[in-house]
Amino acid sequence: MAFRGHYQHSLDAKNRLSIPARFRAAFSSGVVLAKDPEPCVAIWPTGTHEAIVERAVSGLNPMGSRYRTLSRFYQGNSFDLELDAAGRVTLPPPLLAHASVDKDVVVVGVGDHLEVWAGERWAAQQDSLDAQIEEVTEQLGDPS
Q1: Angle, vertex CA 115, rays to CA 114 and CA 119, nearest 5
Q2: Per-residue pLDDT reduced to its tens digit, 24-46
Q3: Which of 52, 60, 114, 135 is surrounded by the fewest CB atoms within 10 Å?
Q4: If one looks up domain 6-139 in CATH, what number appears?
Q5: What is the value of pTM for the model shown?
């Protein structure tokens, strides 16, 4: 399943996020909540998260500093969780702080996972994306 679109949501008093209903089946085998390099929280299906981290570190010396740095960031800042019966997941305090999330959030589909952004940060991100997309698209070159 491809995760697409963006959805306005609010966290409840226990910092639980309701995953959009159309995406819940993709998380039936578990959820990984992870710190993203950008100021948001990444929500991954468990198997997809494992594959992407493995892809990132494969080919690196497992005793080298780049491997350790990537492993610490992506594994040390990730949390294995399950959706509750209502399709919610609790966002851990370190991830809330990283993303500056308090109550109002935007859940964004980015293909293989979801991202959770503070509402005002997502608005700024949208402005930035709009300003860059023509140049980025042009840099892709001619596909033929």
Answers
A1: 135
A2: 999 999 999 999 999 999 999 99
A3: 135
A4: 3.40.1550.20
A5: 0.89
